[in-house]
Amino acid sequence: MTSCNPADRPARRLQVVAAPALALGLALAATPLATVAQEVSLRASVFVPSNTVFGEPCARFVEHVNQTYKGTVQIRLVGPDAVPSLEQGNAVRSGVVDLACIPPAYYTNVMPEADAAILSTLNFNQQRASGGWDALNQLLHQKQGSHMVAGYGDGVQFHIYTNKPVSSVAEFKALKLRTTPNYTSFFQSLGATPVNMPPGEVQTALERGVVDGYGWPLLGIFDLGWAQHTKYRIEPGFYNVIVYVLANFNKWNSLTPAQRDALGKAGEWLETDNARMAAEKSVSERKRQADAGIKSIDLGAAYRKQAYDAYWADIAKRAPEPVKMLRPLLDK
């Protein structure tokens, strides 16, 4: 006989409501964690516009992640118009962005030895085998609060470009060269006069004779409009262009294993893709420069060695112990 006691009714209604919730809980418990994991959305920055030669690889990395790992990781990319270039090292350290595609020069203020990366004579895979990659990453964790996910630019070297012929190292003493911190010690060792200025001022400085040349990677001088004021490229090239995909270390540690794995695999894809494109672009760029009338002047192996010795010595003054540890792992 059914009770007419009103006190019984809420209990029965509660049982009816609770049963589906219980069934859902049991279903979730029986479902593999990966199938119910939330997709993480990350904000990334790149130090140059994404349509430039050193911005495009970062944009391709983001596109690859978004297409390949939808449901696990998605990335929204912003450029220097949203996060100024020189602030991006601090932005990824502080967590303003979760990821940043930046050269190590952008955080030498907190990690002076970071530029040892551009002096390495080993590619990224060789650095991983030697222990150099892990050593840099440990220092990065401690000082920059970031984690190296991947890198690109490796395989593209720097050059001095001039509008005057240089037949020997001694002739640099008559030249004024636009510089950045990674060239300055080398330019000084050559006897040249370094002139600091942002890239946006170089074209006018060349036109007006404020500088006689500049340091820059093999790629990019046509994008900036400098080629028309350039007559010579000095060989051999020196250092390596390095741009790291950095993750804020706290954010990296907060990701699930599947999310970190997705970014790691995307990083492997980026490095493989970069090696192919760097080789192709270097060949086409040399031809383009030659067709534009830019002549190559080779000053020999001693000139290249001077570039490395000067900058290793400069970094060692600022970070003697880290350099003592890093150089055997990066310079073979």
Structure description:
This protein has 332 residues and is of the alpha/beta class. The protein has two domains: 36-153 and 241-282, D-Maltodextrin-Binding Protein, domain 2 (3-Layer(aba) Sandwich); 158-240 and 288-330, D-Maltodextrin-Binding Protein, domain 2, CATH 3.40.190. Helix content is 46%, strand content 17%. The strands form two sheets. Strands 7-6-8-5-9-11 form a six-stranded mixed β-sheet, with helices on one face. A five-stranded mixed β-sheet has the order 2-1-3-10-4. Strand 1, helix 3 and strand 2 form a beta-alpha-beta unit. The chain is globular. The N and C termini lie far apart (91 Å). Mean pLDDT is 89; it is low at 1-36.
The domain tally reads 2
What's the CATH architecture name of the largest domain? 3-Layer(aba) Sandwich
Rounded mean pLDDT is 89
Largest sheet, strands/sense/barrel: 6 strands, mixed
Short descriptors:
D-Maltodextrin-Binding Protein, domain 2, disordered N terminus, 332 residues, 2 domains, 17% strand, six-stranded mixed beta sheet, 11 strands, 12 helices, alpha/beta, five-stranded mixed beta sheet
Layout of helices and strands:
Layout: H1 8-30, H2 33-36, E1 40-46, H3 56-68, E2 73-78, H4 88-94, E3 99-102, H5 124-130, H6 132-143, E4 146-152, E5 158-162, E6 176-179, H7 181-190, E7 193-196, H8 202-208, E8 213-217, E9 232-235, E10 243-248, H9 249-254, H10 257-291, E11 295-298, H11 301-318, H12 320-330
Parallel strand pairs: 1-2, 1-3, 6-7, 6-8, 9-11
Antiparallel strand pairs: 3-10, 4-10, 5-8, 5-9
Helix pairs in contact: 3-10, 6-12, 7-11, 11-12
